[in-house]
Amino acid sequence: MGHATGDYRRLLVMLASRARRLGSRDPEGAAQESLKRSLENAISQPAIAYYFGEDLPADRKIPEWPLDQLFAWLHGVVTYVVREEQNRASNRREVPLGSDEYHSEPADPATGQLDVLIKRELQEIVNVCFPLLESEYRVVLKMRADGIKYGEIATRMGVSENTVATWISRGIRDLAQCVRKRTKGRMPHD
Length: 190
What we know:
Blueprint: H1 7-21, H2 27-40, H3 45-52, H4 67-91, H5 109-129, H6 135-145, H7 150-157, H8 161-184
């Protein structure tokens, strides 16, 4: 991140410290990714530029977010980035180097095949459940899955961002309920 000088460096140090406390294996990378995502976000970018940017014009208006709200946002983003990192690590079954406790037996290759079968089965269930959602929920979930931001979805749909957020939340909830109902009969019982 070439433009990270002065106050940006202090912000990165703070985010890296938070990532380290959250258990990140690469706290500096998590901090940089969190700042990058926040600078790309139209909601958080003005506050970051205002509080941490250099050579701001005198006529720069005060951002909507106070500093404590920006910090809460940044802490949330770094928490999410660290969780993504940890999920990737667990999905790849990474083993820390130099750790003697993990040198017992190689991983069972059948487990990977089972994971593939479970994912395929789950995808089929989602494919059945998705069309059962209300049309607005399907549309916003598809747009969000395509990487379209809430503001753009709201503009395209002619509704507020809060409505988009509500539809996404309800769509995910309804989809999860449908998936749970369909998997209940397929899962082995104790």
